[in-house]
Amino acid sequence: MNTIHSRLLATRKLTLLLSGLVACGIAVTILFAPDSFYTAYGIELAGNTSLVNELKAPAGVLFIAGLLMLAGVVRARLTAVSLKVAAAIYLAYGTSRFLSFAIDGVPHSALVGAAAFEIAIGGICLLALLPDLAGRTTRTTH
User: Fold this and answer.
1) What range defines the domain where residue 15 resides?
2) CB 67, CB 24: distance < 8 Å
3) Given its phi and psi angles, is residue 44 left (phi above 0), alpha (psi -120 to 50 degrees) or beta?
4) Per-residue pLDDT at 136 exceeds 70
5) What share of the chain is helix, strand, coil (3-state, %, to 5)?
6) Residue 30, CB half-sphere, CA atoms under 13 Å: how many?
7) What's the domain count of the chain?
8) Which has the minimum average pLDDT: 27-36, 52-61, 118-127, 131-140?
9) CA neighbor of 94 nearest in space, from 49, 126, 131, 67
10) CA pair distance 140, 142, nearest whole angstrom
């Protein structure tokens, strides 16, 4: 294995490790300590069982996506699909937040920071996929 390939693989695994840990960490916190998590964003949940329930549902999906991201760290055959899932999840969250800013106005500054973080992580995952995309283009055009 050459040095460039080794560095690419290490970068991809680090990207997936960080994105998977963040996704799982956020999901677990929302599932088991939603009041603490959302208070940091200026959102009060106390007494609103329906809202808590509605927020926990996508947290379960985020947890499963985070596990798939982490699976790409330990299973080479899952690395590309894990990066695609990570890019899709983080870019969807970030893009949806920016759409909300345009439609609903700018929220608490922590949520603006979350949007920027999500776009950055999603972008890094896309960058990590570029060699695959370039290789696929080269293989299909020759």
Assistant:
1) 3-141
2) yes
3) beta
4) no
5) 85, 0, 15
6) 21
7) 1
8) 131-140
9) 126
10) 6
Could you count the other beta carbons within 10 Å of the beta carbon of residue 54?
A: 10
Structural tokens at position 97: 């937040």
Q: Tell me what the mean pLDDT of segment 45-53 comes to.
A: 94
Tens-place pLDDT, residues 51-106: 999 999 999 999 999 999 999 999 999 999 999 999 999 999 999 999 999 999 99
**Distance (Å, whole) CA 118 – CA 86:** 10
Measured between alpha carbons, how far is 74 from 128 in angstroms, rounded to an integer?
16
Amino acid type, 89: I
- Contact present, 28 and 63 (Cβ < 8 Å): yes
The token pair that represents 84 in the structure block: 């695609």
Give the per-residue pLDDT at 135: 67
